[in-house]
Design goal:
By secondary structure, this protein is mostly beta strands. Helix content is 6%, strand content 51%. It contains two helices and 16 strands. It has a seven-stranded antiparallel beta sheet. Strands 10, 11, 12, 13, 14, 15 and 16 form a seven-stranded antiparallel beta sheet that branches. A two-stranded antiparallel sheet has the order 4-5. A hairpin with an 8-residue loop joins strand 4 and strand 5 (47-53). It is globular and about 65 Å long.
Length: 239
């Protein structure tokens, strides 16, 4: 049974916007990997350095029916944040719209298209925040990256004094906390903040954020030090 094409922007479904029709969704594609290519005299071939996956554009075709309200439609597309495509209902992308949308053409011809700029990785719609508590010094927990590419999780720690953080047996960070202090370590944005997100706490973190990676499958995160509680999200990622 065919499902009417749709998108969900920041939790709002296009099928709930009167008069708006998504006529064609973009295909599911793999992002392009950025490379640096060097040609060295005397060396056969060239030297290719992979620089990570690039953000890219996706184009969506839209149409109007008789009961549309153009202001509601403009408001719906005047956003950035997260988007779910109907042909990938279990994943979301982070996106922004930088190109102009020709709403005059849309009103005149009842059809148009727009391009949105998506970041290269996809995340699980259904994945939940995991919380773990510890009643003794030192502790560990297992977390599964259900994606097909390594993820950069967000780890929130509550504890005291110096805490060493290990992933799969390898030390990645040392965190220097006051008594019962909470810190949010965002490995994707490569920073640490207080729970409000207003104050940077990078001075309390020793180590390289780039080392905080969860490989596809089971991962073990462990602590040496006084950790009473930790939460983790953003732990599965797809390309």
């Amino acid at each position: 049974m065919n499902t009417r094409p749709y998108i969900i922007i920041n939790g709002k479904d296009s099928r709930l916007i009167p008069g708006l029709i998504i006529t064609e969704l973009p295909p599911i594609t793999k992002p392009k990997i950025r490379t640096q290519i060097e040609t060295i005299d005397g060396r056969d071939g060239d030297l290719v350095t992979e620089l990570g996956y690039a953000a890219y554009d996706k184009t969506i075709n839209i149409g109007l029916t008789y009961d549309y309200n153009i202001d509601d439609i403009i408001s719906f597309f005047n956003q950035s944040g997260v988007i779910v495509f109907g042909n990938e209902p279990d994943k979301y992308y982070r996106f922004a719209i930088y190109s102009q949308i020709n709403f005059e053409r849309l009103v005149r011809f009842k059809k148009s298209k727009f391009t949105l700029h998506v970041q290269p990785f996809k995340f699980s719609v259904s994945e939940t925040l995991k919380t773990f508590t510890f009643d003794q010094v030192n502790g560990s927990f297992n977390i599964r990256n259900n994606g097909n590419y390594f993820s950069r999780p967000i780890i929130t720690l509550t504890g005291s004094d110096d805490i060493d953080v290990y992933i799969n047996g390898v030390k990645v960070l040392t965190v220097e906390l006051n008594t019962d202090q909470t810190i949010i370590i965002n490995s994707e944005e490569m920073n640490a903040t207080d729970p409000t997100g207003e104050y940077l706490l990078n001075r309390l973190v020793i180590g390289n954020y780039d080392n905080i990676k969860l490989t596809p499958g089971k991962n073990t995160i462990s602590f040496i030090g006084d950790v009473s509680r930790t939460t983790i999200n953003n732990y599965s990622r797809w390309i």
